[in-house]
Amino acid sequence: MPSYQRPPGTLDILPEEQPYWTRVRHHATHLAELAGFERLDIPIFEATEVFARGIGEGTDVVDKEMYSFTDKGGRDLTLRPEFTAGVVRAYIENGLHVEVQPQKLYSMGPTFRYDRPQAGRYRQFTQFNAEILGEQDPAADLEIMTLVWDLYAGLGIPDLEFQLNSTGCPRCRPKYVEALKSYYQEHDDDICEDCRRRLERSPLRVLDCKEERCQPIIENAPRIVDYLCDECREHFASLREYLDLLDRRYVLNHRLVRGLDYYTKTVFEVWASGIGAQSALCGGGRYDGLAELLGGPETPGVGVAIGLERIVMTMKELEVQPPAPRTPKIFLAYLGDRPRQESLKLMDQLRHVDVGVYFAIGRDRGLRSQLREADKRDVRYTVILGENELESGKATVRDMKSGDQTDVDLKLLVTWLSEKV
Ligand code: AMP
User: What's this model's pTM, rounded to 2 decimal places?
Assistant: First the structure.
């Protein structure tokens, strides 16, 4: 057992895993920029208040999962458990609301939640986040959803389907909450303790309950779609029409409410088969009241958070191969002090013309050990320099595939190698 181990719920992403990550990051960035999203980076920590107000007291994230601390200046800070609240804070603080609307912003980076660690559930995980701020139009919801869909589809994840619901707005939701509460009152003896608490603090979340005994009750509970006001109903109908138009499959899921308080109207997730209970690949929706809640002007918004660890897990499960990483195809071996110096110069020259190269690091190594390393590094050519080569002005270049050796004029070597690889 090593003396130190990484904290529970964190990952070391080793070099052999990186091709998956590079592929996912590049693809996400490419699609976001294709759709006119611009990158926004925000701090990894924010004033705790931003999350407490934004995500909402009474939610699991705020009540149980935040990494909060007081800094040496006495400020209450929290490692971001998600992006949206911070992005909206930045939008207001930097006056992005006076720029061209809507603002289409994407971000990517680590997020932190004190969750119960298990496969696909970590305490530090990585989100790709996209938001469209300043528009109510359901076309904005559609754009967010197509971005997500195309991301998964382009990575080779098949059988996609959105879970979709509308959570209404402050005009129509209270009526629904009332109906839900009175329905639950009739079943008070049959529900779990958590649901009893949820009914007080965050009533919609009873629909999210995983307890066996609550399932039949949820099944027959009133459905929010039957309580939507005209505006919410039309918004939801248009979004579904657009999803049909662009052939993005969805199922209506009346139980989908999502764990954060700020949602209004659209909520959606995409589930993956095969990664166990933690099957949500992403979650998103509309949050028209969030900017005001954080002290900004009234600003509608819609967005999505995509967990990258779960994508990588899914790709592996499906045996989707990412492109091989680009590693140097040339290895520089040498024997003796002067040849070692010449090799160092050659290394420098090659890299300056953008040709990747390994130098045989290590003092007093035999040629055999250097060639063994070259073999393991899977290079195409090994350049061998010794006193003889310097004297004759020609390097020995070994083709590692065929084993053939060629003499190449030292003055032409950089050009020769750069043309070969
Ligand atoms: P949420 O806002 O909770 O719906 O999270 C959005 C997305 O982030 C989820 O769909 C997951 O892909 C990912 N995610 C959330 N929590 C975790 C976690 N603890 N570990 C790994 N990924 C997570």
Answer: 0.93
